[in-house]
Amino acid sequence: DLYRKVFVFRKDPSDAYVLLRAQAERPLRNFTVCLRSYTDLTRPYSLFSYATKAQDNEILLFKPKPGEYRLYVGGKFVAFRTPEGRWDWEHVCASWESATGLTEFWFNGKPWPRKGLQKGYAVGAEAAILLGQEQDAYGGGFDPYNSFTGELADVHLWGAGLSPEKMRAAYQGLRLPPALLAWKNLSYETRGDVVVKNRLRE
């Protein structure tokens, strides 16, 4: 249970990452990924990387530059522009549904205009799921200049889309439905220079 805890990635650039174990062993036709990050990086960095042997960017939450997030599904991406410059925790949730190909992106509890991506696609099962690195091969192939440095918390992955109420609840840290990856019941291994510490501030 990582309640009120954070992963601190201390070095820049870094080869460190956190390996997560999800409850999912079947393909995903819907998903929602949420997390909170705190960093002063301005270069590109990866937050959440879900790779299969067939596709390294099966699900990827990536920040190529200040003021932009990218959500990849099956190797293709949509971009969302966000306000920048507050040096504060940023909470993001991204969801996707295969039937319509619609993606939702929520930034600090507010929805952005929806975009279309990979209609009819299925996200492969048996994935390597990493925080802090972008996989260019299954479980590896890291570029240190896409690594994350800073603090990460409140990581969740659901095999479903969340309602607007639940998206806001994720931002507020309230009770959430059972998840494939849940921050309060997380199966993980740290690799390299990552430490688990108490959260300093809200």
UniProtKB/TrEMBL annotation:
Keywords tagged on the record: Acute phase, Calcium, Disulfide bond, Metal-binding, Secreted, Signal
Cofactor note: Binds 2 calcium ions per subunit.
Protein name: Pentraxin family member
One BP term from GO: innate immune response
Cofactor(s) demanded: Ca(2+)
Subcellular location: Secreted
Species, as recorded: Crypturellus soui
GO cellular component labels: extracellular space
